[in-house]
Design a protein that fits this description.
single chain; alpha/beta; two-stranded antiparallel ribbon; 28% helix
Amino acid sequence: MLHGLLNNAETLRQASSADSFADSHDFAVAYGVGVHEAWNAGGCCGNVLTDDVAYVRQIVAAAARVTPVDRSRIYVWGFSNGGMLAARIACDAPDLVAAVGMVGGQALVSCPEVPVRLVHIHGTADTTVPWRGGWSSYLTMFLPDGETEATHFAPGSTIRHVLWDGGHSWPWWAIGALWDFSAPFSLDDATSVAATTATAAATGATGATGMTAGTGATATAASASATTSAPATTAVSVPVSVPAEAVASGAVGEAVGAELVRTGSGG
């Protein structure tokens, strides 16, 4: 789990409720801590030059020393700048991760020869990291359009967009949505699983009637549409309507060190 710019691991830990979710679903969760309050995600943020892909590898190795870890089922999830790093890891360390997830981030990297498995949760009212891209006054940079995200990745990638009517925050149901997407994927059978998932996603996009946005979530899909942005690569966008109280309870803002915070159980 990777925090956002000017966040810290504890902020994300509290906002995501990942500890209790990991315990109930029998997996381990580790929280990274960005040096200089930022991650080197390939263009954002804070002008950091740290090798954060290598750092995430170190997190996995450290976690494996204290709890059983299935190396074929490593998933990296992040908020905002942390989500951007997750997308970079999908490209730069395909041998490490079976799937990645972004909440309120944008992919700032391209890997046209590396298929990725990525779920992207984004608030359509986000002005810090706008869903449709453009200028971000907070980050003082231009960001890409989320609708064209699939063009950054290789054919055969599995990309799912979950859009909701919120701003730059971590919705309370996001941890469940990240797990539901990621859990079926394994490096051992990545090719076959990715192909199956892509087919299922494309089929569901023609007439989706609902989805589970997370454990206990009341959010349901109003509609879904598939856009093929690259040969054999389908990005499925699923708009989600979320109760107003969920937005208030899941808010996360855009904090250091190099220590690892670990919790959870299982492999």
